[in-house]
Amino acid sequence: MRELLLTRHAESEFNASGRINADPRIPCALTDRGEHQAAALHELLAGEPIDLCVTSEHQRAIQTADIALAGREMARLVLSDLNEPMAGALEGGTASAYDERLRREGLNSPNPGGESQLDALRRYVLAYRALAIRDEPTILVVAHSLPIGWLRSATAAIEGSDDELGVDFARPGIEFAGPPDRYSTRALARATGVLEVYARKERR
User: Fold this and answer.
1) Could you tell me which residues are beta bridge partners of residue 143?
2) What Rg, from alpha-carbon coordinates, does the chain have?
3) Range of the domain at 160
4) For 12, what's the count of Cα atoms within 13 Å in the CB-facing half-sphere?
């Protein structure tokens, strides 16, 4: 890999209703607005030489990629390690209740019947490690706010603009189907290394 382009999926039905969908087996399509966002991403990527498109298993990520890359033939790869943190009993509940529990219980507390935020972060590290060593020069990843937010936070820590790693889970500040973040192989490896060290710690 020479360059990684990383963007969030477009708005989904669960996003619009403020509910949690972490189980990729549950249908979660884009809204009409989400389809327009994905179409705008199509225009934004029109001149980009993309060799591989990677998504999570979630319908919203795959549908965003389908629209954004319509008319272009390229290899596709689905990585379950990029999936949302498994919500367990919180699946389908409100995002506000999910965020409130996270603030109360901390990053290392698993969702009832699911996984913790640090469990998910360890998966993201595995995904980024796997992508960094692929042969395709330019890789587009359509994922979710959390893997993107963690990578941004690690990059900010490396650059010295932020002393503490973390993601605002209620307001991650990551645009739906926005302009991709860009990482060279070296930048991705450095940021992933920071996340790997952080994920080993038990934090609350």
Assistant:
1) 8
2) 16
3) 3-200
4) 24
Q: For residue 93, what is the domain's CATH number? A: 3.40.50.1240
Task: Give the DSSP letter string of 97-122.
Answer: HHHHHHHHH-TTSPPTTS--HHHHHH
CA distance 164 to 60: 30
Kind of pairing, strands 75-78 and 181-184? Answer: unpaired
Per the rule left: phi > 0, alpha: psi between -120 and 50, beta: everything else, 155 is alpha
What's the pLDDT tens digit per position in 147-197? 999 999 999 999 987 778 999 988 889 999 999 999 999 999 999 999 999
Q: What mean pLDDT value characterizes the chain?
A: 95
What count of Cα atoms within 13 Å lies in the side-chain half-sphere of residue 162?
13
Q: Contact, 76 vs 99, CB < 8 A?
A: no
- How far apart, in whole angstroms, are the C-alpha atoms of residue 173 and residue 111? 23
Number of domains in the chain: 1
Interatomic CA distance for residues 178 and 64, integer angstroms: 11
Tokens 């959390």, located at residue:
146
Backbone dihedral angles phi then psi of residue 142, each to the nearest 5 degrees: -110, 110
Residues of the chain with pLDDT under 70: 202-204
